[in-house]
Amino acid sequence: MEAVTSPQQESSGPITRGCQWLKSLPNKFCDKTMEIARKTKKLGQDDPRRIVHALKVGLAITLVSLFYYFEPLYDGFGDSAMWAVLTVVIVLEFSVGATLGKGLNRMLATLVAGALGVGAHRLATLSGRQREPILLATFVFIIAVVTTFIRFFPKVKARYDYGMMIFILTFCLVSVSGYRDDQVLEMARDRFSTILIGSCASLIVCICIFPVWIGEDLHKSVAANMGKLANFLEAFGDEYFKVSEESNENNKSYLQGYRSVLTSKSSEETMANFARWELGHGPFGYRHPWKMYLKVGNLTRDCAYKVEALNSYLNSKIQTPAEIRGKIQVPCKRVSLECSRALKEMASTFRKMLRTRSAVMHIENSKKAAEELKNLLKTSLWEESDLVEMIPAASVASLLLEIIGCIEKISEAVNELGEAASFRKSNATVLPEQPDSIQQETIQHDSNTAMPVPHCVIVVSE
Amino acid sequence: MEAVTSPQQESSGPITRGCQWLKSLPNKFCDKTMEIARKTKKLGQDDPRRIVHALKVGLAITLVSLFYYFEPLYDGFGDSAMWAVLTVVIVLEFSVGATLGKGLNRMLATLVAGALGVGAHRLATLSGRQREPILLATFVFIIAVVTTFIRFFPKVKARYDYGMMIFILTFCLVSVSGYRDDQVLEMARDRFSTILIGSCASLIVCICIFPVWIGEDLHKSVAANMGKLANFLEAFGDEYFKVSEESNENNKSYLQGYRSVLTSKSSEETMANFARWELGHGPFGYRHPWKMYLKVGNLTRDCAYKVEALNSYLNSKIQTPAEIRGKIQVPCKRVSLECSRALKEMASTFRKMLRTRSAVMHIENSKKAAEELKNLLKTSLWEESDLVEMIPAASVASLLLEIIGCIEKISEAVNELGEAASFRKSNATVLPEQPDSIQQETIQHDSNTAMPVPHCVIVVSE
Hints:
The structure is a homodimer of 462-residue chains. Chain A has 462 residues and is an all-alpha fold. Chain A contains 18 helices and two strands. Chain A has a two-stranded parallel sheet.
């Protein structure tokens, strides 16, 4: 558009401008198409399961619509067979948890509401043709009002919202249709069986062909969030204590990864809600403690808030001069690095569903470094320095100390979860039980072996 | 259950225990019922619009089901009339935005997919009875796969997800049904008109009877979030600098209000998505800049992260001794109070949709106090104090300085939004235009008059 209104063409007539606009149209169309193609490709590459899901939906719908094409199948249900197709479209979701939740909600609600609807119809017909519509309308009104209100209960909303809607829907369908059609029982039965077929078809396709377990996604996401914080803390030391400004222009995206943790609460809650519907799969049992994932997630987020505060000192205008920062560089870097290692260790063992206390060693190390840092701050090194200039560095030190506390809490929560979900004990910790007094030693020893130690092989060439 | 397994009754037989369990059943039932009643009451009291919404749903469904009871209305549509009832159950949501979004999505998708379905049916019949099901199945498969994949595009997901589902649904319904029923056109027409009736009935009931505008909720929520931060900052000074521990046991809920701001992102985004569907209403035009609310919300959240950091110093184990804290008490309290006032002022004028720059005065005041604070920290007052003990207080001071920056950003975003949404200018600011150089003065003057100044009237009694 800018080309059209450029001063050069301002004077040309509307026809010329129109022509130019038309000429530019194919180009614009091309650009737009290219952009969409690029986005589509990215969407598929980011998560190839999306393509698989689309194909699964196509397959399930095509399969169920066979009911319509084959005479013998069609004869059983007639037009009601269409409900099976509709059910597949509605119920088949991306993850097994969501599909199971919707499918079970839909089947149960249809069953209960269908039965109630038949009952309401019978009751209404007893009262005579005149009063029948009034009674039916009253029933429908009461059921609709009560059920709609129940949908506001947070627990119901989280798990049974869809079922409640289908309950109203089926009740209306069965009881009201009964006024025109006396075969209410057949209708209710047909509706239920077609919905059963549709739901089962969705579930079979969803579970049997490349299933997407949302519980697994939640598990990975909680571990990944710890990893993101670890990445920040790993890079923080070097970034904060660097003397020159050389890498200021460089890509700092690795420092921004943690930001998605700050706003992950609602997606974690949704995932946990869906995960609770899922059957046992792989290492996750049916009664896997998904709620405890939310606790670990919340503690990780608390830690992310501290990291956010830490991050603000990286870009702050008021900076402690490099030479003053240099004095606390060693212990600060060590705290940050050990915290990062503890988080990485936790993320890695958590992802593998192992129970080790190997992170404890890194936490202990960071605590030792914290003591050093405190001692350093207590010395008279600072007498000559300006307090205002000291504040940012002091705040950074104080935040690092707090982060140790956060990570300890995460570690406890992860251990609790590991026990509740009976994660495997890591090989390294399978040692005879030791009295408490020397347990600390054992843990440190264990974690030393469990920790991924970089192997340096020095080959001396002659 | 605890009574049953108490040691005293451990020895009693299973029958006795069974009897006692049965005896306790009515009590438990009573307790449960009371609890549900209490929760229901609370749910209604917290937001009476929920009760109104439930009644609205009941009314709309009952109204639309009249189609079924009255002969002349029924004759027009026959069994298809049921689609109107189903549409009401599905489309009528709590807020106008959500209802409009769903209704328009449903109507448009039904129209387009119905037309395409008829076309697909015609094309398939041309190929002969044998190849018809193969062609139909191919069409259905392709449409289902492509549309399902399109649903993954974030922009589509946010606004047209429901429409995409209905598109697949209607396309299958029309094209597949056509195989058994040659009156495809009538079916498509009936489906569209019943859905039109259902959607319109939902919209009329939703908009005409106590409408819930989600845009208004978003507007209030953004203002309320600023207020929550202001409440914390107002109380923070007194809480942090209090000498004794007397109020430690007191209810500190007013200090925790800000926590909900930390996790408000997803609900704000949902509200903004729905709000964009809404018609103009009250002071909100049709093209109200709802997206800019998200920007203000994000900046408010950034400020909330700082407040979270501040809060951790209230409960920190390592505390600066009260006498050292006392030295920076006056400017710190002033910064915190002026920040709180600025936020309150913004929240209040924002809620009223006024454009004033009255918060600027408070920001300027807080900046002055910040200068004082910085000067105080530069003095030699601190020579004799321990740096480790100083750190928490110094960090608090530094955080307060950063919060000023955050609030300035919020103020700018609020002003931008005010301009884009053409908020009214407050009376106090309607003054002849002044040159830039003295604008600052004017603003301060304006805001002085706009600010709620406590009037002290001293009556001298004789």
